[in-house]
Amino acid sequence: MDAIAAGYTIDLHTHSLRSDGALSPADVVKRAAARGVTIQALSDHDSLAGVAEASAAGRDLGVRIIPATELNTESEWGDAHVLGYFIDPADGSLEDRLRWLRENRGRRIELMVEKLNALGYPVELARVLEIAQGGALGRPHLAQALFEKGHVRSYDAAFDTLLAKDSPAYVERVGLTPTEAVTLIREHGGVPSLAHPGTVVGLDELLPKLVAVGLAGIEAYYGAHSPEMTARCLASARALGLVPTGGSDFHGRGEHGTDLGGVFVPPETIERLESRRGRA
Ligand code: AMP
Ligand code: FE
Ligand code: FE
Ligand code: ZN
Q1: Beta bridge partners of 64
Q2: Triad 184, 10, 155: Cα angle to 5°
Q3: Residues contacting 1, CB < 8 A, separation 6+
Q4: pLDDT tens, position by position, 234-265
Q5: Among 73, 122, 158, 236, whose Cα sits 20 to 30 Å from the Cα of 146?
Q6: 249 lines ligand 1 (CB under 6 A)
Q7: How many angstroms does the Cα of residue 196 sit away from the middle of ligand 3?
Q8: Which residue has the CA at smallest separation from atom 17 of ligand 1?
Q9: Relative to the CA of 155, which ligand 1 atom is closest?
Q10: Cα dist. 248→14, 96, 218 in Å?
Q11: What is the tens place of the pLDDT at every residue in 179-238?
């Protein structure tokens, strides 16, 4: 069902070319608007660079853009990604931290390119950079380069066989722990929510630790969640006083995944998140 038919007007998790999405910020907003979205968080990985362009497009198209970012972390907790809402793209000290994270992304991708070359899957760093078009570098750009070279049958196969954790070309991230990511968002006046909790290892143990440093939300509504996972997130939200958030995590890469506005997010979510600004 598409967003207009379903009436899904809020999408709090989207990516553009400023990180590993395939569309420009303006084009992501255009597509969201065409699908009935009226409130959209642009949540590029480690970057706020697309917010100004998205906001300008949003003004023309009647879409309210919430400035956001998604911080992918490194720890024993699996893929714990922290979304930060209502952060200020003009905050220079936050930008310094995000730049450090982006630089680390670049070094990590260089190391992965070296590994791929040594493994007999030659890709050129220059081509990976071209694919990324200046956005925060990530494994999706490598996946596309591998696919173009014919080393893998599909974008997803690149992850399955080479790029996923414990795969031959994987290199660990140098970055923040989940606790540090939540703290960073809070220190800069943002409202943190734990993204796609289904990818976290040890969720029930991690959540109270993150709540203690200011976690305010949990992404209960997410395309890849089973009904049971959504129910589990909603139960955790109730128990820990978290706001249930949700979004498509649209990247525009690969053939599947949720399209913009493809996930139900309750209308009161924005107000509830806003009420958590400035306090843990
Ligand atoms: P990175 O931040 O460079 O480690 O890349 C992580 C990003 O890769 C995530 O944000 C997703 O966009 C994408 N990703 C992670 N795992 C997969 C997978 N198994 N298949 C396709 N895309 C994935
Ligand atoms: Fe991504
Ligand atoms: Fe994520
Ligand atoms: Zn995401």
Answers
A1: 39
A2: 75
A3: none
A4: 999 999 999 999 999 999 987 678 999 999 99
A5: 73
A6: no
A7: 7
A8: 159
A9: 21
A10: 7, 28, 14
A11: 999 999 999 999 999 999 999 999 999 999 999 999 999 999 999 999 999 999 999 999
